[in-house]
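Below is a filled-in request sheet from our internal design queue. Each sheet records the structural input a requester submitted and the sequence that came back. We keep these sheets so that new team members can see what a complete request looks like end to end.

REQUESTER: design group, bay 2
PRIORITY: normal
MODE: inverse folding
CHAIN LENGTH: 133
BACKBONE (tokenized):
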């Protein structure tokens, strides 16, 4: 018999492993899109109960990030109900978008402006990563 705390820990471990596998598959798909090898870090998985309260997302963001962050979100309602957020540093997202549209990549990218097309690409990247999960 599994004690409730152990059951929750086991479910969390399974969820982490599913994310690990899925991120690898998403990296493979995205690599094919840009015709380059792409390495994605396995995301930190946090389960936040927001029912009745509004969670303070700052408590879950890394403290060592400089610059602007971009968020791609997806809501799901099937076997699980919830919302998943992918958080990317804008600088890295700009670099990836440039790869997607075959623009020249400069060593120092300081362009933090994004067009509607850029945001469409970001949404598609989020869909690829999150739907692989």
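RETURNED SEQUENCE:
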């Amino acid at each position: 018999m599994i004690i409730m705390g152990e059951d929750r820990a086991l479910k969390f471990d399974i969820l982490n492993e599913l994310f690990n596998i899925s991120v690898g598959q998403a990296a493979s798909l995205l690599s094919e899109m840009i015709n380059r090898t792409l390495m994605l870090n396995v995301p930190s998985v946090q389960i936040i109960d927001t029912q009745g309260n509004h969670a303070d997302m700052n408590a879950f963001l890394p403290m060592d990030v400089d610059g602007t962050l971009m968020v791609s979100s997806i809501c799901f309602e099937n076997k699980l109900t919830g919302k998943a957020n992918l958080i990317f540093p804008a600088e890295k997202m700009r670099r990836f978008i440039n790869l997607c549209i075959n623009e020249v990549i400069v060593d120092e990218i300081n362009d933090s402006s994004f067009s509607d097309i850029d945001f469409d690409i970001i949404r598609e990247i989020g869909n690829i990563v999150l739907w692989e999960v």
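SHEET NOTES:
- The first helix runs from residue 4 to 34.
- The two ends are 29 Å apart (CA to CA).
FILED BY: M.R.
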